[in-house]
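seq:
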Amino acid sequence: MPSRILVVDDEPSVTDLLAYNLRKALYDVQVAADGRAALRLARESQPDLILLDLMIPEVDGLDVCRELRKTSDVPIIMITARGEELDRVLGLEIGADDYVTKPFSVRELMARIKAVLRRTEKGGDEESSTLLRGPGNLLMDVERRSVAVDDSPIELTRLEFDLLHRLLLNSGRVLTRERLLEQAWGYDYVGDTRAVDSAVKRLRAKLRAVSAEADCIESVRGLGYRVN
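struct:
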């Protein structure tokens, strides 16, 4: 079955361009022109990925992302205008996986879509049968894709799980933001690493909410992150 992609944008020129290229690549494409329709289609059709413009009518893109993250970890790539810097940062903070800016390169966007879907479909990677332990009685079951501290489960998105997985696998070693983009996001570094910082911030907050000791991720100034 082809992957289903929901395109959310109120500019027909953009949706036509994206739908044409996505269908040419054999994706199943749905289109929504406003946030209310986007939420309805996301619930009804369960897309594998959402391309979400922030400036849309009815319900704006940030609120759509917030609402989706209450019940779903569907990958979301935001589409923003160059002047929406604060919105981009906020979008990453509330759970978007990545963003592209208008005008965007269709080739680059298609590469990112393929990488995100590839990571999603794999649902993990080569170390799929291991148990990984971290400080504060943190336990990751890679096969079941679960994380817990003692008997308290921690609900992570697919991206947050993959990010913590890479850090635990390399415990004690500093992983640069570029390396994390390649290993957890699944595509080559393209010049902006704030998606990594936002994802790490969300992940650390979830770990701390269960146990302060479980927040085992350390920021190494000027380099990246590591688990000690």
